[in-house]
Amino acid sequence: MAPPPPPPELINDAAAEVLLRLPPDEPAHLFRAALVCKPWLRILTDPAFLRRYRAFHGTPPLLGLLHRLHPFQGDPAPLFFPTAAGPAFEHPASSRRRPRPLDCRHGRVLIDMLDGRTKNFLVWDPVTGDQHRFGEPDIRYFAYSAAVICAAAGCDHLDCHGGPFRVALVASDHSRDLIWASVYSSETRSWSTPTSLDNGPVFYVNAMRGALIGDEIYFTLKHGEGIAKYDWGKNFLSVVNPPPPEHYSGMVALMVMEDGSLGYAGIEDSSLYLWSRKVNAEGAAEWVQCRVIKQETVVPMCKPPVAACVVGFAEGVDVIFVGTVFGLFTIELKSGRVRKVDEPMACYSILPYMSFYTPDHGRLSSLVRTH
Prior knowledge:
Blueprint: H1 8-20, H2 27-34, H3 38-44, H4 47-57, E1 62-68, E2 81-82, E3 98-105, E4 108-115, E5 118-124, E6 131-135, E7 144-150, E8 165-173, E9 178-185, E10 190-191, E11 195-198, E12 211-213, E13 216-220, E14 227-231, E15 236-240, E16 252-256, E17 262-268, E18 271-279, E19 285-294, H5 295-298, E20 308-314, E21 319-324, E22 327-332, E23 338-342, E24 349-354, H6 365-369
Antiparallel strand pairs: 1-2, 1-24, 3-4, 4-5, 5-6, 7-8, 8-9, 9-10, 9-11, 12-13, 13-14, 14-15, 16-17, 17-18, 18-19, 20-21, 21-22, 22-23
C-alpha cells in the first residue's frame, strides 16, 4: 500500500525553501515560478516570505542603468536600460520636457524635468510606478548634482517603496563664486534654508553621481580637484581634498567602501586606483591607497593609447563601471569578473538602479485575491 502523501503545509514549506534561493538579479525567474501553480503564487506574494527573501539575499540587485551626460553634451534618451532578465521599466518622460537623470538610490530615480528655463524635479519608483514632482529651491545655480535618499526611520533599504525621502542638492553659482546646498523633504514638501560656501572661481560641482555615508553626501568638484561634503542632517557644507594625483584624466567616481568609509576610484596610465579615506590614530582623516588594478589584465582591449575612464559605482555589490571606446564594462572588485553591459556611448556618469522586483509588485498579486 502506498504511503500517504505528506501534509500540504510540509510541501509548501519545502517549496518556500526552494523559492527562497531563486536569484534576485534575474526577477523573471520569480515571475515564471509564480505562474507554475497557485500555491507558489501565494508563497511568492506573501509579505512574510518576501521579507525573508530580501533578508536572505541582502543587498538589492542591480536591475538596470540610466545614463547621465555632461551638461554640454545635452540630455540622454529617456530610456531605462535593463541589465537583468526583468522588465524594461517605462521611462516617465514627457514630450514637452527634457528629462535629465540625476541619481538612483534606495529604489528610486531622481530626474530633473527641464522645460525651457523651468526646472522641476521628479522622484520616480520604477517598481511601483509612483511619481512625486516638486519645484527647485530658491537659489541661483548652474552646475549641480543631487541625490535621492530614503528618510524612513530605521529602514534597512531592502524595501523602501512608498516611504518618505529626501533630495540633497549641491550646486555652483558662478556669478558669486559660491557652492550652494539644500535638502528637500517629501514629508514637509519643502526645501531647507540653503547653506553656502565661498570657494572661489576654481571649483564647480561635477554632474556625476555622489556617494552617501550616513547623513553625509559627497560630490566631486571640477576635474576631481576637490570633493563637496554636505551633511544634510545638519545643513552644513564643506570641502574635502582628494587623494593624489588630483586629475585621473578628470574622470573619477566616489564610492562607499566595504568598511563604510569614503572611497575614490580613478584611472591613470591604464591602471585603476582605489583609495579609502581612513581616520588615523590622531583622529584625522587621510587617504590610503588600497588597491591598484592594471586595466589590460581585466579589460584586455584597454591597452594604451586606448582611453578608459571610471563612470560609476554600485554600492553593496562592489561593482565599478568603466567606459571605453569598446563599450561599457563592469568590474566586480571581489571576484575580478568583468562583463560588458552596453555598447560604446557618450556617457559621463552611470546611475545604477538597484531594487528587489518581486511578484507582489506586478499584476500577479491580483490573482491571489481572486482564487
